[in-house]
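Re: the 175-residue chain
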Amino acid sequence: MIIFADLTYNSATMSKKLTHLDEQGQAKMVDVGQKPETERVAVARGSVLMQPETLQLIIEGNIKKGDVLTIAQLAGVMAAKRTSELIPLCHPLLLTHIDVVCTPNQAASRVDIEATVRLRGKTGVEMEALTAVSVAALTIYDMAKAVDREMQLTEICLVHKSGGRSGTYNAEEKI
């Protein structure tokens, strides 16, 4: 049996425990049945670093597998919808909005990815936004790996979340 210690934040006003563990340290799905429905939004970002020549091929549409940015966008949307199938303790959610944007950044030789996910419900959509970014990034890697195996998926993180009991979270400027 694995028992995890409580997580305590360095804040005089806030002390929290891991919500997916019971009193014995066993994994559990959080019961959200009594929580009120609220509008919930999450925004995640990440990047795929690559050689400048690889980025140019993507921009010009000259990757043999097809339109990298459009396919990555669609993969991100599909992944957000299936997050509960990938992450064991996530609730299946009726998402009302998913937007995945893949933007070439020639100055930094990367593709920047941003996912926004929204619903009206009893639990948040952070995992769905993070999953969308991650799968979009993996799709870019998969489609361009024949010309650049040194690509790096970087800085995948939550930058905004709103709704629910814990309120709004805004990360400092990321990527």
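Residues 1-15 have pLDDT under 50 and may be disordered.
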